[in-house]
Amino acid sequence: MALVNSMISARSSKRSWREDEYKLPMIRSFFSGKSFRDVSPLLIEKFKSERLGTPTKHGTTRSRTTVSLELALVSRIFSLTVELGELELNPCGRVRKLKLDNQRYRYLYPEEEPNSRLH
Question: Where are the alpha helices (DSSP H) in the chain?
């Protein structure tokens, strides 16, 4: 997966390049020894379930958001291989995304509370 190394060159165009560099060694180790053509949606599902099932280095449960961001990086790598003509389809496109609980909770100020009861 030589293209993974080219992701490091994204430093100039991506604000999250540090997080990507942190994730790349783990992605490399999981997919090591496989060519891009060897990676199937089933293998990516296995990656997803293994990442959800393994604890963090602090022993806590890995969040679904973290795994979702890792999958987004894997998908981006495969999208680049499609753009470069190495693959015809991105195997991540056939993998279901994780459902995330990203609902935001807003707390009202005391002066806002009377107005909220009108609706």
Answer: 3-7, 17-31, 41-53, 64-83, 113-116
Total-model pTM = 0.76
Kindly state the greatest CA–CA separation across the chain.
62
Nearest to 65 by CA among 51, 76, 45, 44: 51
Question: Is residue 26 a contact partner of residue 70, using CB atoms and an 8 Å limit?
Answer: yes
- Is residue 102 classed as helix, strand or coil in its secondary structure? coil
| Amino acid present at 2 | A
Integer CA distances (angstroms), 35 to 1, 28, 40, 70, 73, in order:
6, 11, 11, 19, 17
User: How does residue 67 score in pLDDT terms, banded at 50, 70 and 90?
Assistant: very high
Residue 20 has pLDDT above 60, yes or no: yes
